[in-house]
């Protein structure tokens, strides 16, 4: 038992709508399969529609005189028996495309019919389902496109250059470029897929010094082999800089209160022997701000198409060592509830790194980094993210500058904070708010307590 | 039908012989000097059953189209006797070449009515195995199959399957076409080939008076069966709604061809009670009166009368046949609704009998393409 | 091996095929008693009888339509359309029926029909006797279209075409009918050692070269070879590829050649607009894009109906027009 709907079919004249001329049944009438139930008027003629169901008419859904699109339900029938064949299919083709009010021809695979796009109108209306109206939407691709056309079997030449072959591969515009510059493409090293010489290759060839000649040694030049930490740093910086879109935000902060607090903290016996510096308070401020803005403590997972907000804060501190720049990270910095623990952690971290005892675990797994360029006597810069992280905070030098304080220009201890963010993960507003919070804590360190 | 004056007969048309008839519209029989009717009651009952079931298939298919389950249907309403009468005259080894309206012939050749619906539903362009059924696939391009029939008959000759006297071996071919098709050059060429090679083919023209909207006057100035004379073989007209006469003349023509006496043309004079197809609106070119004039000449009504009056069938039998028709209609409906859509890659099958690199490459591309697209959302 | 003409080579191939399979029939206008207007079917009626070598009525649609009927009955008809320009009445039967019956019947029916069609110009004929209609049929799915350029291919390819279960249009360049070459007509296709006969749908490099790939088929293969000979005297090395099969195309051979040379010129008698050259140009450009020093150039007939015979020489692409295209292929720049 159940109620079946009959939707206005396309009766084969390419019709997109029809007028209900006259009903032959009323609610409550018993109907057999093929009983005439309604006359519809198409562009060409009046057509009688036979009932597809056997049962009792439940409702007439459209009034006589109304014009409705193909696919509109026009009548419901309570079906008498359960052996109505294949109930789900007992609807005209027009029902499949209700969004378009249009009619899908059979002969398309199931997944095709669900698709919205339609080829243009087909045959004359006299001989089939008739044309489709409307364009529909373009189907979305879920995977990289297949090759536009399979390569024909090409014996023996393969797509990439054979070694020793004299035929350089390049697109016509690149050939022209080479010709205009008087370059023989055979001499250019190709970097395109399949050994194709790209435009960039030709440009580089033009700009580069003689490739084969050994680098001329000018007196006074010093050549430093790139290896070890420097090599790793170089690679990491390139990977980071050219993968993550960097945006840097600035904030200048009056940190006089923090400076005064640090003076008092230095005198605290519990912090004897530990590093008590703006970096300590900045670290605390960052951890706090990360709790308030967890999206800065995140990672871009392109493969999964996800941004991962990390549960723990492993705070990286950029440390200048004799071997180069290292960024060891203090694990679970957010769990270090006391400033003393934080100070101890940071001090130990820096010492380990400088002494060359940092383990791979120390040097990896960071979730956010602070780089203290202030110790070099500069105010800030555009720091490059530690690869995999979404934010890095540059801490500038703390020095006195004229500042407006309570309406008057007074010398205050001022510092600049520069925050670079991975704009895939964090947007400007989010970065700004985070930076503002860090600044706010350093401006009024009591916020460590009120926000803590 | 009136004709302009025949050029050879000043002032008038040549005398037209009466169409061959054995069963009048009122159900009474009439004798013919050359043709005798079938009288076996069991055979007659089976023919009645054929007529009713064929009409019922046709009606059901028309309804299915109106319900959006078929894209199109070409009804054979009114032509059942012409098709069943000739269809039942065929021997098992004979081969028939239909147009696209010979649902009664297909029935006689054993084509499952659900298979008949496949091209109209659009799941295939064919629908059955021609070699097994002895029935070529429906041909949409008008008249082309008549040449195929002539060629097939030439093949039968080369197989030595003509005039051996062995009724199980001697083979005849029948080519169906309409009054409109008779104008096609291919039909004339088929007449030429069949006649000059004396091929064993019967040309069966169902003159249902209309080629969509165009009446006979647009196709010919002489009765169609007279065309045969121009090509040198006999032709006759038969009352197409008289199953007894249709069967008799077709049987004789087929036997004649089988015996090696060459082609013959039969013009079955009938009427297309329905529209050309379900997309056609006949009210634009014919009056209801014209259709009504043919109702008393209905092939099934007169035959029922004949069966009753000869005692070959009683009301119980007629009711039984009606019930069988209902059952068949339900089965056809269910079969139609359950027809699976072919897979997308089916369009690449059987373009060639032998492997083809371009088709293979395009099939592979299409498979990748389909896999790369997200479903539009929602399941069927 | 003796030297035979193309006409005689096809004749010999037909004979071999008819010997091998009693279902093979030859049919067409004047093919029996006369032996064909080009004598390609000479002597076959005498040896195989008029049941197997049929003089048909003058009705091309009838030739193809009845051939379809014969194929349905299990025969393998080899039809002759007397001249290229007379294939058009049969166009409907070819494109609506012959090409589609396998497809329509979902593989149950096969159309092992060959249509032999003499084509092309250069014989000083009257209208309709010099056409190149191959593109209409190459464009029709379900048909195979091949063409021989010389006697050896004529002999082997006609047997291969007859052996195919698909409908094959076999275009014979009528102006080459009297060209002679050595052909082993004593060996039938079935008896040829494995691998000794080129596959029906393979293209062939008929003259290796390094500077330009010239793709030709049928009557223009000779033209391309002549051009290559002259080019060699001017210091240019042309590689000539005889396409042999128009549908399907042997892209692999052409691609491999163009990747070696970097330049491609296609030559055919058919009008340039929408001719086979356009398809080859599109495919070569796609598969050899980075190898190309110049666009693929086409040399074809002008886009006018085939003219009166006194204008024929001016119309047909000759070695000069081929060499002009070759020269032009070097004006586009490139690597050197």
Q: Could you explain how this protein is built, in words?
A:
The complex is a heterotrimer of chains A (452), B (380) and C (336). Chain A has helices at residues 110-113, 172-180, 199-207, 228-241, 256-266, 278-292, 339-354, 428-443, 447-450, and strands at residues 2-7, 17-23, 30-31, 36-41, 46-50, 55-60, 67-69, 73-79, 169-170, 196-197, 246-254, 298-301, 306-309, 315-321, 324-326, 329-330, 368-371, 391-395, 399-405, 408-422. Chain A has 452 residues and is α+β, with helices and mostly antiparallel strands. In chain A, the strands form five sheets. In chain A, strands 11, 14, 15, 16, 17, 18, 19 and 20 form an eight-stranded mixed β-sheet that branches. The model of chain A is unreliable at 83-127 and 150-164 (pLDDT under 50). Chain B folds into two domains: 41-338, Thiamin diphosphate (ThDP)-binding fold, Pyr/PP domains (Rossmann fold); 344-373, no CATH class. In chain B, the strands form two sheets. Chain B has a five-stranded parallel β-sheet, with helices on both faces. Chain B has a two-stranded antiparallel sheet with strand order 4-5. Chain B is globular. Chain C has 336 residues and is of the alpha/beta class. Chain C contains twelve helices and 14 strands. In chain C, helix 3 packs parallel to helix 4 (91-98) and helix 9 crosses helix 10. The mean pLDDT of chain C is 95. Chains A and B meet through strand 5 and helix 1 of A and helix 1, helix 12 and helix 13 of B.
Defining traits:
heterotrimer, B: 380 residues, alpha/beta, five-stranded parallel sheet, two-stranded antiparallel ribbon, 13 helices, globular, C: 336 residues, Rossmann fold, seven-stranded mixed sheet, five-stranded mixed sheet, 14 strands
- Cα(first) to Cα(last) distance of chain B is 54 Å
Which percent range fits the helix content of chain A? 10-25%
General form of chain B? globular
Distance between the termini of chain A: 65 Å
CATH topology term of the largest domain in chain B: Rossmann fold
Largest sheet of chain B: 5 strands, parallel
Q: What is the H-and-E element order of chain A?
A: EEEEEEEEHEHEHHEHHEEEEEHEEEEHH
Main interface by residue count = A-B, 57 and 47 residues
CATH architecture of the largest domain in chain A: 2-Layer Sandwich
CATH homolog superfamily of the largest domain in chain A: Chloramphenicol acetyltransferase-like domain
- CATH class assignment of the largest domain in chain B: Alpha Beta
Mean pLDDT of chain A: 80
Shape of chain A: elongated
Helix-strand topology string of chain B: HHEHHHHEHEEEHEHEHHHH
Number of strands of chain B: 7
Q: Could you list the spans of chain B in which at least 5 consecutive residues all have pLDDT below 50?
A: none
Q: Strand arrangement, largest sheet of chain B? A: 1-2-3-7-6
Secondary-structure class of chain A = alpha+beta
In terms of DSSP E residues, the strand content of chain A is: 15-25%
The CATH architecture of the largest domain in chain B? 3-Layer(aba) Sandwich
CATH homologous superfamily (4th level) name of the largest domain in chain B: Thiamin diphosphate (ThDP)-binding fold, Pyr/PP domains
């Amino acid at each position: 038992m159940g109620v079946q709907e009959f939707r206005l079919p396309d009766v084969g004249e390419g019709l997109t709508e029809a007028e209900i001329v006259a009903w032959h049944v009323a609610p409550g009438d018993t109907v057999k399969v093929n009983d005439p139930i309604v006359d519809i008027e198409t562009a060409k003629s009046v057509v009688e529609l036979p009932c597809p169901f056997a049962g009792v008419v439940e409702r007439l859904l459209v009034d006589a005189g109304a014009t409705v699109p193909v696919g509109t339900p026009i009548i419901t029938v309570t079906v008498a028996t359960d052996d109505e064949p294949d109930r789900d299919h007992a609807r005209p083709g027009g029902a499949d495309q209700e969004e378009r009010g249009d009619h899908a021809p059979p002969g398309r695979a199931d997944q095709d019919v669900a698709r919205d796009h339609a080829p243009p109108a087909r045959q004359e209306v006299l001989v089939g389902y008739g044309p489709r109206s409307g364009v529909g939407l373009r189907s979305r691709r879920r995977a990289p496109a297949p090759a536009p056309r399979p390569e024909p079997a090409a014996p023996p030449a393969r797509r990439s250059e054979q070694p020793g072959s004299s035929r350089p591969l390049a697109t016509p515009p690149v050939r022209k470029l080479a010709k205009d510059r008087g370059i023989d493409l055979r001499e250019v090293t190709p970097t395109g897929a399949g050994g194709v010489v790209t435009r960039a290759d030709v440009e580089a060839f033009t700009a580069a010094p003689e490739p084969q000649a050994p680098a001329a040694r000018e007196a006074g030049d010093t050549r430093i082999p790139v290896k070890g930490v420097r090599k790793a740093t170089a690679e990491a910086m390139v990977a980071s800089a050219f993968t993550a879109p960097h945006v840097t935000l600035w904030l200048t902060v009056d940190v006089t209160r923090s400076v005064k607090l640090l003076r008092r903290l230095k005198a605290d016996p519990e912090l004897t022997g530990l590093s008590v510096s703006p970096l300590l308070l900045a670290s605390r401020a960052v951890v706090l701000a990360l709790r308030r803005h967890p999206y800065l403590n995140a990672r871009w997972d392109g493969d999964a198409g996800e941004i991962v907000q990390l549960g723990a804060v492993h705070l990286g501190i950029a440390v200048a060592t004799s071997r180069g720049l290292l960024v060891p990270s203090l694990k679970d910095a957010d769990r270090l509830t006391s400033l003393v623990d934080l100070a101890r952690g940071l001090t130990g971290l820096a010492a380990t790194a400088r002494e060359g005892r940092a383990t791979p675990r120390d040097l990896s797994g960071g979730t956010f980094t602070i780089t203290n360029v202030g110790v070099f006597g500069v105010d800030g810069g555009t720091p490059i993210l530690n690869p995999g992280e979404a934010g890095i905070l540059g801490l500038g030098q703390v020095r006195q500058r004229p500042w407006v304080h309570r309406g008057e220009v007074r010398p205050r201890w001022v510092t600049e904070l520069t925050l670079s963010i991975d704009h895939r993960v964090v947007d400007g507003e989010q970065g700004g708010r985070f930076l503002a919070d860090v600044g706010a804590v350093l401006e009024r360190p009591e916020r460590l307590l009120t926000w803590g | 039908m009136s004709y302009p004056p025949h050029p050879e007969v000043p002032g008038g048309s040549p005398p037209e012989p009466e169409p061959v008839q054995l069963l009048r519209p009122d159900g009474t029989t009439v004798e013919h000097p050359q043709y005798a009717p079938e009288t076996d009651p069991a055979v007659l009952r089976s023919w009645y059953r054929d007529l009713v079931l064929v009409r019922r298939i046709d009606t059901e298919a028309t309804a299915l189209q109106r319900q959006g389950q078929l894209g199109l249907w070409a009804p054979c309403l009114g032509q059942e006797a012409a098709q069943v009468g000739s269809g039942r005259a065929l021997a098992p080894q004979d081969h028939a070449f239909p147009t696209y309206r010979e649902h009664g012939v297909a029935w006689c050749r054993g084509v499952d009515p659900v298979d008949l619906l496949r091209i109209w539903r659009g799941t295939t362009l064919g629908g059955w195995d021609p070699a097994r059924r002895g029935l070529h696939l429906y041909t949409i391009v008008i008249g082309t199959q008549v040449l195929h029939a002539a060629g097939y008959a030439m093949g039968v000759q080369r197989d030595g399957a003509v005039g051996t006297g062995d009724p199980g071996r001697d083979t005849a071919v029948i080519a169906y076409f309409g009054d409109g098709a008779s104008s096609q050059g291919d039909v004339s060429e088929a007449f030429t080939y069949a006649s000059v090679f004396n091929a064993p083919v019967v040309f069966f023209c169902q003159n249902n008076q209309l080629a969509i909207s165009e009446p006979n006057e647009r196709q010919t100035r002489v009765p169609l069966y007279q065309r045969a004379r121009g090509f040198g073989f006999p032709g006759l007209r038969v009352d197409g709604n008289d199953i007894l006469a249709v069967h008799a003349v077709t049987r004789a023509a087929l036997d004649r061809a089988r015996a090696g006496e060459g082609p013959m043309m039969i013009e079955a004079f009938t009427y297309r009670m329905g529209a050309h197809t379900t997309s056609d609106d006949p009210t634009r070119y014919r009056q209801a009166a014209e259709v009504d004039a043919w109702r008393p000449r209905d092939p099934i009504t007169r035959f029922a009368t004949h069966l009753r009056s000869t005692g070959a069938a009683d009301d119980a039998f007629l009711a039984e046949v009606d019930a069988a028709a209902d059952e068949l209609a339900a089965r056809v409906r269910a079969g139609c609704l359950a027809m699976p859509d072919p897979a997308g890659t089916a369009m690449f099958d059987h373009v060639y009998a032998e492997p083809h690199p371009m088709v293979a490459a395009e099939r592979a591309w299409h498979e990748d393409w389909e896999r790369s697209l997200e479903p539009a959302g929602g399941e069927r | 091996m003796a030297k035979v003409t193309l006409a005689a080579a096809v004749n010999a191939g037909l004979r071999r095929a008819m010997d091998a399979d009693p279902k093979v029939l030859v049919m067409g206008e004047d093919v029996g008693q006369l032996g064909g207007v080009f004598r390609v079917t000479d002597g076959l009626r005498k040896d195989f009888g008029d049941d197997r070598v049929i003089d048909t009525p003058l009705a091309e649609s009838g030739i193809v339509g009845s051939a379809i009927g014969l194929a349905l009955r299990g025969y393998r008809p080899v039809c002759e359309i007397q001249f290229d320009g007379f294939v058009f009445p049969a166009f409907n039967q070819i494109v609506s029926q012959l090409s589609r019956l396998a497809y329509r019947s979902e593989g149950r029916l096969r159309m092992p029909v060959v249509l032999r069609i003499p084509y092309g110009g250069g014989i000083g004929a009257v209208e309709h006797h010099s056409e190149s209609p191959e593109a209409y049929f190459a464009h029709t799915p379900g048909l195979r279209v091949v063409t021989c350029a010389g006697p050896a291919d004529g002999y082997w390819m006609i047997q291969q075409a007859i052996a195919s279960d698909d409908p094959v249009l076999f275009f014979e360049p009528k102006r080459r009918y009297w060209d002679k070459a050595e052909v082993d007509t004593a060996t039938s296709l079935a008896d040829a050692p494995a691998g000794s006969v080129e596959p029906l749908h393979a293209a062939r490099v008929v003259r290796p070269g390094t500077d330009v790939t010239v793709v030709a088929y049928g009557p223009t293969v000779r033209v391309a070879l002549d051009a290559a000979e002259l080019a060699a005297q001017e210091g240019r090395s042309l590689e000539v590829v005889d396409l042999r099969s128009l549908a399907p195309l042997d892209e692999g051979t052409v691609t491999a050649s163009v990747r070696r040379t970097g330049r491609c010129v296609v030559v055919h008698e058919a009008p340039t607009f929408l001719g086979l050259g356009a398809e080859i140009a599109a495919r070569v450009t796609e598969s050899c894009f980075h190898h190309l020093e110049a666009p693929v150039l086409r040399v074809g007939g002008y886009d006018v109906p085939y003219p009166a015979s006194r204008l024929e020489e001016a119309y047909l692409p000759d070695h000069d027009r081929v060499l002009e295209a070759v020269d032009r292929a070097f004006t586009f720049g490139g690597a050197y």
